[in-house]
Each structure stands twice: as structure tokens, then as C-alpha cells.
Amino acid sequence: MTKRELPALSIVEVQDLLRRREVSPAEVLESLEERINALDDKIGAYLAHDLAAALTEAENADVNLPLGGIPIALKDLINVEGQQCTCASKILGSYRAPYTATVIEKLRAHGAIPFGRVNMDEFAMGSSTENSSMQLTRNPWDLSRVPGGSSGGPAAAVAADIAFGALGSDTGGSIRQPAALSGVVGFKPSYGRVSRFGLVAFASSLDQIGPLTKTVHDSALLMNAIAGHDRRDSTSLDAPVPDHTKNLGRDLKGIRIGLPKEYMMEGLDPAVKTAVTASVKQLEALGAEVFEVSLPHTDYAVSVYYILATAEASANLARFDGVRYGHRADNVVNLFDHYARTREEGFGAEVKRRIILGTYVLSSGYYDAYYLRAQKVRELIRRDFANVFEKVDALASPTSPTPAFKFGEKTTNPLQMYLADIFTNAANLAGICGISIPCGFAESERGKKLPIGLQLLGKALDEARILQIAHAYERSTDWHKARPEI
Amino acid sequence: MARELDVGYVAQLARLHLTPEERELFQKQLGDVLHYAEKLNEVNVEGIEPAAHGVPIFNVFREDTASDWLTSAQALSNAPRQANNLFIVTKVVE
After folding, report:
1. What is the CATH number for A148?
2. Domains along chain B?
């Protein structure tokens, strides 16, 4: 094994080499650094990576811990004391985190080394990472296309073998959709499964931290590290955490999978439809029983999501007032001017748009018509899932209606960008868990392969079951082994 | 309803200065989004309780005891302006 080949490995494979003392944690980090320096000019995934600090942590790494000596990249919205945490926003351009998120404490307790801050849509608002105010991140499979978003940095870094694994966050699909478009595994835990303490809040009733990895097994390992109750997050669930690897390797006999008929809609890219239909056949061949099911309120999920998520965002982002941290406008004439110009200068266009929309739906006279009504339809969407999960163990669907799109294709039309999340929004509204795994390729007009993702959704806290199904599928196919030529 | 959105007024509520160009652009773009969301009016929500979360979460209590948290130096470490261990704010009282 040369250092050059190391970054191509999965976490499980690196772990094996580390435990057999064939490589050291420092060598693993150096190999990654070398590849980042060679490739990331083309990809643009990393906003920062501090090799020296990581090497210091690596000196004490215990390779016998579950993630001992494994570097993990972080979407730039998770606080690690002493590191930047920009949320890809100018308003946090010079911020240094004074404290550490619970997920990072847990990762470190499992031996992992937080290494590198990766790009995202500003404050996780977007589906292409084009809303980053820092830099463009390109899809490793076709550099003229987006990596998806908002966790586009984590997805592109894992896809390009410049990260072994990463933590992202998923508010309406922000882990699963970029995982699908970049051809990696992305897992969104059930709401409350993972502590949000230290995650910069976008929409607090929807946000969850989760892993992006090269394989399902790697995601299960990261889930084992980060899941669990945290008294510092009152929405984290005090429920026993299973070993997320316990079902891996089991077949699918007796597993019932539902196909929501509403998800096979018009406008679905033909290549996506073909790939997802074939993967459902494959799940059947592996022993699963497949049923058509109905989620009658599917058509309303995007509307409900963009009302509730923007409402919560407008409240959460009120904290950026230029007083305690972040950018502050100069030469203000009064307090109103201080707030209004600080926020004008600090926020990008999409964040401003969502603050306006969120403020509007919460404002006097419109609260009942928009916000309250959306919360009621959210309850109906939640019930849709509760009903189907009485009949099936999981739901299968496309993750995204299309493969990766081109830069600029949707930036002038926010509604079109919002519709990129049509299959992923509902899971966050209902608080359930879900995964996207590679299930095929489309071909671009330039002859480039564009990854397609299969989404599997499971009931709340049934993570181990979803990982079992995803793993059985992955083991029987080669999609996850394909690598982009960069 | 979408026609009632007044971006300039809402921006004031949100303490967010917008350029005239942004106001005009957002007026159109958010008008489209609100128009799309009008389909929620088709749904019969009579007797449905609003859901604030996907999973039922009730009040969560803990012991009211003091514990270590940020020191004042840490809390001030990102302050745009500070003096004497305090945040300097823009004049509030005329």
C-alpha cells in the first residue's frame, strides 16, 4: 500500500491497516493532505484544513477505538473550539468557535480526528452549494455540474477520495441529495437521534447531523459514534442506541418495502426512473417483498417545508445582529441602521430571500394562513408515513428527480431549485430516517457518467433496519465502487 | 394572498436593508413561491392539530444547577467591539 493509494480506501479498510500497524494515523493524514493539495483546486471542497493541528491529535490516537485515527471532514457549520465555522457566510467570515459540538466530542471519544472544513450553501440554504459565499464546489463526476447541496463540500470531498468520510447536516435533503448527485452514501438520522448542540441552527425542528461516506458500513460506524441523548439538546431523544452495524450482512427475507406511487411522478428524469426501478427489482431479488403504497399528501411537502423552514430560519438568524459575534457594519447612524446594514452586508441573496419569506409567513395577518396551516398539513404528512409504516419496513424512491445539473441552471429561479428537494423534504417534516445510496448512472451530453441515488426511508429510530437494507443492496451491486476520473 | 406580500415592509420587520433591485427581484421570486404554496388551501385541515415537530416532544426539564460554560473571555472572543469585559453596542437611548 503506497501513500498515494490510501485515500481511495473506505473507513473500514483504513481501520484494518491502522490496527495491523501497516500505516500510522499520521501517514493516513499526510496521504489525505497530499491528495487534497493535488486535487482540490479542481473540486473546491475544502475551505480550510489544518494538517499540523490534526497531526498533533493523531499523536495520541488509539487505533483500537472504533474510529481510531480516522480523519473526518466537517461541513463548515459544526463548531469545534479554535476552528473556523463560517457556514459559508460572510457574516461569520472571521468567527472562531469558542466551544465544541457534542458530535465532535463523541467522534473524538471514538478516536476520530476532525480534519478539514468543507463547503456548503450559505447557512445550509440551497441544493447546489452555489449559495456559498466562499467558493464554488464542483461535482467530481463532471466539473461543469453542481455537487448538490447544501452538503456539497462533504459529498464532493468523499466522492473525490479527498475525505474518508464527513459529517453534514440535513434539513430538507441536504445530506441525501448531494450524496445522490455526487455518487456517495448519505444518511439522515431520525429527528432527535443525534445531538444538535454546536450545530449552527437553520430550522431547528428539521435539522439533523449525519454522515456522508463511501460505503453503508462506514455510515453505520459514524452513526455509532454520534448517536445518542445529550442533555444539552432538549430535542435529542432519550432512547437506547443500537449497534448500527448489528444487521449488516443479513439478507432481506421478510423485509417489506413500499413504493410510494406519488413519487413516480411526471418530470422524473428517464435515467433516474430506469435506475430506481431496476434497484427495486434487485431488492426483490434479495428477498424483500415490494408493495405499492400511497402517501396522499406528498404534493404538499415542498410548500409546507419552505414555509416552516424559512419561518424557523428567520427566527434563528435574528441572532446575527453584529453585537456578540460576526460581521458588524461601520459608520451606522442608529440602531436600526446597525442591524439592517450589518445583515445586508453579511448575508447572501438566498439567505435574504428566506429571511423575508419566513418573516412574512410569521407576520401578523398571515400567520394563520401560512405558518399555522403548514403545521397542520405537516401533521397530515406525518400521519401518511405513520400509516404506511404499519404495512412496510421501508420506502424506496429516487433521492432526486434528476442527476446533477449544471452551474447556473436553477439559480435564477428559486422555485425550481426548491423543487430539487421534492423527494427528500417530507422525511424531515415527519422526523423519520433515510439514506441515499448509489444505484446507477445517467450520461451527460458530454459523455460523462452522472450518479443516481436510491433513497430508502425508515420509521423514526429504525436506523439499523435502513442500514441493513442499504447494505444488502450495496453488497449485491458495484455502483459504490465506481470512481470519477478527475 | 401572494399579491399581498410587500417585500419592503417585511424587510423592515426583519431588520434587513435591501437595494431597490433586490426588493423588485424578491417581490417577483417570492410571489412565485407563495403562489405555488397556495395549493395548501386545497387541504382540509379541520380538526387537525398543528405539528411543531415530527416526533412528539414535551417539556424537558433538568435540575436548575450552575455548571461551567464559556468564560467571559471566550464569550467576548468574537465580539466586533468590546471594552472592559463588555460588548460595545450602538447607542440605544437618544
Report:
1. 3.90.1300.10
2. 2-42 (1.10.20.60)
ipTM: 0.95
Rounded Cα–Cα distance for residues A186 and A197 (Å): 21
DSSP secondary structure letter of residue B43: S
pLDDT tens-digit map of A164-216: 999 999 999 999 999 999 999 999 999 999 999 999 999 999 999 999 999 99
The answer to whether A38 touches A83, Cβ cutoff 8 Å, is: no
Contact status, residue A350 vs residue B22, Cβ threshold 8 Å:
no
pTM of the model: 0.97
Q: How many domains does chain A have?
A: 1
pLDDT (tens digit, 9 = 90+) per residue, A422-448? 999 999 999 999 999 999 999 999 999
Q: Over the stretch A271-309, which tens digit does the pLDDT of each residue have?
A: 999 999 999 999 999 999 999 999 999 999 999 999 999
Compute the distance between CA of residue A484 and CA of residue A460 in angstroms, rounded to an integer.
34
* Residue A479 belongs to some domain of the structure: no
- In chain B, residues 14-73 whose CB comes closer than 8 Å to chain A: 14-18, 22, 26, 29-30, 32-34, 36-37, 39-41, 43, 45, 48-55, 57, 60, 62, 70
Which strands sit side by side in the sheet containing A256-260, from one edge to the other? A46-48, A113-118, A71-75, A165-170, A208-213, A185-188, A433-443, A449-458, A394-398, A256-260, A289-293
Question: CB count, 10 Å around CB of B42?
Answer: 9
